[in-house]
Amino acid sequence: MKQRFHRFLSLLLTLVFTLAFSAIAWAADVVILHTNDIHCGVEDNVGVARLSQYKKDLKKQGLAVLLVDAGDAVQGAPIGKLSKGESIVNIMNAIGYDFLIPGNHEFDYGMEQFFRLNSLQKTKYFSCNFTDLRTGNLCLSPYKVVSAGGHKIAFVGVTTPETLATSTPKYFQDENGKFIYGFSEDNSGAKIYAAIQKAVDAAKAEGAEYVIVVGHLGVNGSIPKWSSITIAENTRGVTAIIDGHSHEQFDTLMAKNKDGKDVLITQTGTKMQTVGKLVIHDDGTMTSTLEKEDTLPNPDPKNLKVIEKENKKFEPILKQTVGEALVDLCERDPATGERRVRSQETNMGDFVADAFRAVLNTDIALVNGGSLRNKISKGVFTYQDILTAFPFGNMSSAVEVTGQTILDALELSAMNLPEENGGFLQVSGLTYEIHTYIDTPCKQDENTLFAGIDGERRVQNVLVNGKPIDPKATYTLASHDYMLLNQGDGYSMFGGCKLLQDRVKLDNQVLIDYIVDTLGGTVGEQYDNPYGEGRIVIVEEKP
Which domain, by its residues, includes 325? Predict the structure, then answer.
């Protein structure tokens, strides 16, 4: 009898402890760590090895931990360019991401390589609006529902429709120039709102209690109808948005959805400036913080070894000396640290545009500010320094254009000012004014390609080598295939122009040739002013 009683008591206590433990597990906090716009900066700032250790430490504390990325990880530095993104995938796989989306720059190595990168990911890419227009089917799964801490949490992937212009448009077209891939783009934004809502509703039908959009969308500098705030305002059922694309830092930006409910939006900046930490607490509330280096543990030794292994593959190439700079070539304002190359002239912009003009021997050169990603510091610099500053690997080309085409291109370049724009042009052979008190007259089609001018022009007093530009005259123009041949950043006005030099060499090779052959290996004091030599003048008030 006593034996039976003790057995009963033992079973009862086991049941009580099991139920108690289950209740605790059911009510556990869920920690969602997130990154965006790493741009190959795996060793920059916080660094991914520190993130890896932080994830491990939180799990040791018994917390449910998930890790997601909001795009633009595989491009932006030599390790990405030389491996076509595969080294970055290997490093991220070693950390163990639970959810990934493609940003616009995940497509920079072409569609075949994009799908290869997807196949190499331990967890695949997700996007609810990346569509094969030939079939009408999504190219990737739209969302993922995971169980963590006793909750069902859905992640919905969204890739900005700006991708069609800000990656390489040709990659999304067939051989006749017809778009065969799309991102739910239209003139109103309604298509992408509908695509997101469809995914949200499907996730909720699967029992998701929380729906988090992981979007490469952005706020400032992004096209308003596709920004994360506008997405929140035009959908229902979204709990939070983990954002990317605009390289901003905000832990808690609040917006109202279509039902007037709060939607939390967060973004970590770029190049691992911070790690995002979104916590769903046991009472259903949510908090968001951005963790910096001083709040995080020492790097994970195992992940450091993975990074070292990938870096060693390319060391012999990257360590080659190219030349010497007597000045800092800056893409940012040296006084404030704010990125300048996408909205104003810089000495780096002058230097790169001069290189294209000199090496391709043209009247004018135009280079989009978004292609300049890092400074070249004073002193001896290497091939790695060049690739880090100019990482895209586009091919230099030259065309014959009319003055009117140049005027249209400059107008598109100035469209977003004073907000920054990756398509803002740094120039050589030109000087001009941008009157920002005038509203932009630029029109774009649903694919964000240039569609004409309607109204007073912002760009005025354009001089070519000191003489007023003639809209009817022809000029020779150097740039790269991204803009001249592939409509990158929306520059469709170059379509049909007479091609003089077709993809003659890599853009970073143009810089090396300019440094070695034209400058004799030394970037000198002609570029000593970090703000440039006055080729672009911003006029903020009406004279």
Answer: 320-539
pLDDT tens for each residue of 529-538: 999 999 999 9
Task: Report if residue 10 sits inside a domain.
Answer: no
Long-range CB contacts (within 8 A, 24+) of 282-285 = 282/27, 282/28, 282/29, 282/149
List 420's β-bridge partners, or say none: none
Q: Is the residue at 15 inside a domain?
A: no
Residues 300 and 229 in one domain: yes
**Comparison of pLDDT for 222 and 256, the residue scoring more:** 256
Q: What is the pLDDT of residue 9?
A: 46
- Contact of 321 with 397, CB cutoff 8 Å: no
- Rounded Cα distance between 8 and 12, Å, is 6
- Residue 93: which region, alpha, beta or left (left: phi > 0; alpha: psi -120 to 50)? alpha
pLDDT tens per residue, range 87-122: 999 999 999 999 999 999 999 899 999 999 999 999
Region of poorest pLDDT, from 273-282, 355-364, 408-417, 494-503: 494-503
pLDDT at 332: 92
CB-based contacts of 170, cutoff 8 Å, min separation 6? 485, 486, 487
Q: For 317-339, how does the pLDDT look when each residue is reduced to its tens digit (9 = 90+)?
A: 888 899 999 999 999 999 998 99
| Domain boundary residue, one of 310, 344, 363 | 310
What CATH number did the domain enclosing 386 receive? 3.90.780.10
Q: What is the DSSP string of 264-324?
A: EEEEE-STTS-EEEEEE-TTS-EEEEEE-GGGS----HHHHHHHHHHHHTTHHHHT-EEEE
Q: Which of 466, 441, 438 minimizes the C-alpha distance to 538?
A: 438
Measure CA of the first residue to CA of the last residue in the chain; give whole Å: 103
The model's pTM: 0.76
Give the Cα separation of 433 and 345 in Å (integer).
Answer: 11
Cβ neighbours for 437, distance < 8 A, ≥ 6 positions apart: 539, 540, 541, 542
The backbone region for 177, taken as left when phi is positive above 0, alpha when psi lies in -120 to 50, beta otherwise, is: left
